[in-house]
Design a protein that fits this description.
Rhomboid-like fold; 13 helices; 2% strand; 60% helix; two-stranded antiparallel ribbon
């Protein structure tokens, strides 16, 4: 097989419907634009005074002081979906990292696991951010507010490394970069960007731990996102009862690739090893179809 066909997962881009990574990127972009428009309107109405925005918007969507948690508990669900309006470059950087690690995860466990993994990591990270503020002394000191997807990104990176630590990105026919090296650079940048605030660091560590646990749950046969898809199918069934059976079939959650439809586990392992060594596009058409069937797509 020619080396010209060896590429990483980043060269394989599924359509929007089957691309959880792309859906997250678009959702993050839309959320950023919404918040930026609100910020611009406030600046126009109040003649450049952003204090109104800081008082009425940020505390209701971002992680703040633990003393305000009872009055703003929902922020553990929202903080990771937004970015500060003046932080476009950080948003762009975050989405590049999401695409980098998320594409690997999506390729190996299916697009239906990407969004739940990301959201679970954000949720667990948010909880531990507030818990870390209870540390006595200055160690629990936090910045004014925290927005951004850092916990979710770390969770995705840890999940990718856990799934395939020997994976390599093929940038050219002969030049590759190990996934573990990319993850190391990412971790260093995340740590520097945290300002070394202990609650922020703990938030990211908790997000990474969730990514590891999520993968281990998949490997054990448990489906952490099953409840969400079942709920979605029930809601869909209420509005489209005639399509109930179809909805149930489409709502199956992909876990790890399991032997099915006459495909042996050893054959699946051979295909995944080939992806690790040579990239997704090194697979033959038959092998790609076999991988999709094994994943339940």
């Amino acid at each position: 097989m020619g080396t010209g066909q060896r590429r990483s997962a980043l060269s394989y881009i599924p359509g929007y419907k089957n691309n959880g990574v792309l859906q997250l990127i678009i959702a993050s972009g839309v959320a950023y634009m919404m918040l930026a428009i609100c910020w611009a309107l406030v600046m126009i109405v109040f003649a450049g005074d952003h204090s109104t925005f800081d008082v009425y918007f940020i505390p209701n969507i971002g992680l703040t002081n633990v003393a305000a948690f009872a009055a703003h508990w929902w922020t553990i669900f929202t903080y990771g979906l937004f970015q500060f309006p003046n932080s476009f470059m950080e948003l762009l950087s975050n989405m590049l990292w999401l695409y980098c690690f998320g594409s690997v995860v999506q390729m190996l466990v299916g697009h239906k696991q990407v969004i739940p993994l990301y959201l679970y990591s954000l949720f667990v990270g948010g909880i531990f951010y507030y818990i870390a503020q209870l540390i006595p002394g200055n160690l629990g000191h936090v910045p004014a507010a925290v927005l951004g997807a850092r916990a979710g990104l770390v969770g995705m990176a840890v999940a990718a490394v856990t799934l395939t630590p020997s994976y390599r990105f093929y940038l050219t026919e002969t030049f590759t970069i190990p996934l573990i090296l990319v993850a190391g650079v990412f971790a260093a940048l995340m740590l520097l960007g945290s300002g070394f605030y202990i609650p922020v660091v703990i938030m990211m560590v908790a997000g990474g731990l969730m990514g590891y646990v999520y993968v281990q749950l998949l490997r054990s046969g448990y489906k952490p996102a099953d409840w969400a898809y079942n709920l979605g199918n029930k809601i869909e069934g209420l509005v489209t009862p005639s399509d109930k059976n179809i909805s149930k079939k489409k709502g199956r959650v992909i876990s790890m690739y399991q032997p099915k439809q006459g495909i042996s586990q050893s054959r699946i392992d051979e295909i995944l090893d080939k992806i690790n060594q040579k990239g997704y596009n090194s697979l033959t058409k038959e092998e790609k179809e076999m991988l999709l069937k094994a994943g339940g797509e």
